[in-house]
Fold:
Amino acid sequence: MMAKNILQSITAIILIAVLSIAANARSSVWHDSLSLWKDTALKSPKKARPHNNLGGSYEMEDMPDKAMEEYKTAIAIDPFFYHSYANIGSIYLKKLEFDRAIEALLNSLTLNYNQANAHNNLGLVYELKGMFDKALEEYSIASNINPFMLTPYYNRGVLLEKIGKVDDAEKEFIKAINLDANHPIARNTLGEIYLRHGRIDDAIKEFQIAKKLEPKLLQARYNLATAYKKNGQTEAALKELLEIIKIDSNDPRPYNNIGVIYKDKGMIDEAIKEYKKALSIDPKYINARYNLAMSYKEKGLLNEAVKEFQEVLKIMPEDKEVKEQLEDLLKNPLTPTLSRKGRVG
Structure:
């Protein structure tokens, strides 16, 4: 679970691969970069750059072991080829081998300190290790080296919000957006900060912009639906969730969240149908199973409710709320059920 959370953090923070790609590579052949750099490395076996760039192509094709081999070959040819050290650091980061990632990135920066990407990635490693002060310092160095690079501002914003400095985080995201007003992820993340801190109207605005910029950015659509619901705009939330299903019908979350909306409207039977749709896609989806159990309980279908609560505890044995619900149901089966908010997400 910890590894999964860290990988999600890497995705959210927009890890930048530090690739040294020849600036004059023609766009007509770049889509087949693996073949291009294989050919180039074969023709120039004693040059570091082709091996480094072949490694980058392997990395882009999700072949990290082959990428690592090429980066190491580049360093063996030219021990001062700092790009490859940085790229090795990137691979170790993705493998969650943080100490090795730090070593490789520091080796690269020793050879060339003025690498904004390498400082940014070093900051990310420090952040994932919980070394927040060092992470903030590296992000700042990266943005000082390259003030026009969006990612360090974004990363600082994410981290500052994480440690409770919300106003400072907002400033960093605004800097990022000033560099690229059409960056959907930055817009979406700023919206998430606004949403978490009760600025719902501002959040809706950012989510709407992110959605317009990238209609298939489903997280922005989920966030928009959540913000609409918090703002009392139930029909708008429902419409957004239905649009998500049109884009990806195999995601259980919108069905669950539609069920919560129906449940809030008193449409329990309709809510149950939606929860079941979610569970048909992912039987281990805790929120949908919990909501289904609560709906059964409200309808007086006690055996069904007990079964669903027990299924939740098989997946998450330490869920205190579910334990309390199950114990209460078994001890007091005839006690009227108080309505509770459904679990969304």
